[in-house]
Amino acid sequence: MPLEIIASDYIARFRGPAIAEMTFYKEQPSLSEAIRLAALSRTAHGKRHAHQRRIPGHVLEAAEQSLQGISASLGEARSFDEVHHQITNQIGSLRGIGELAIYDFSHRIGAFLKLAPDLVYLHAGTRVGARALNLTGDVIPKSAIPSAFHFLSAAEIEDCLCIYKSLLKPGTIGRISRSLCMTVKRPVCH
Fold it and tell me: Cα–Cα distance between 160 and 119 in angstroms, integer?
């Protein structure tokens, strides 16, 4: 039951904003603009996304320029995994760009390309949440995730593992209550 409470709380509080965020990238007028906004980590309000707040602006600009250079290849991608792989190969060695930024850029550009993850990608905070459920690796199939999360998309599970990582720690799962979940604030996943 406790994991069901977490999944329900996620849906009630975070699904809508997450959908709105991806809709913003999906509705960009061109792939070039989607890449620009994704890599510069700009939200619909013109602010920098909290996940990339610590990355210097010149690093985000370098990532954006580099990704613009593979825009044709990204546009031909047939899966989210292919987008993620291309972005990793292109900017993964760029100092200041880590796993979370690569996933976020891939997710945003994937939204424009209508390519959503079908695996749960682990990085930063999501890895902490996954470890609490005895899950390891870089990507996890949904079938390996506890059944309480199966009605969430892979991207939502990734988000849930990060947001609720402190509640998923060993020893806390059995004590989760609805009131405890309602006190969770959306963290920055680093």
Answer: 14
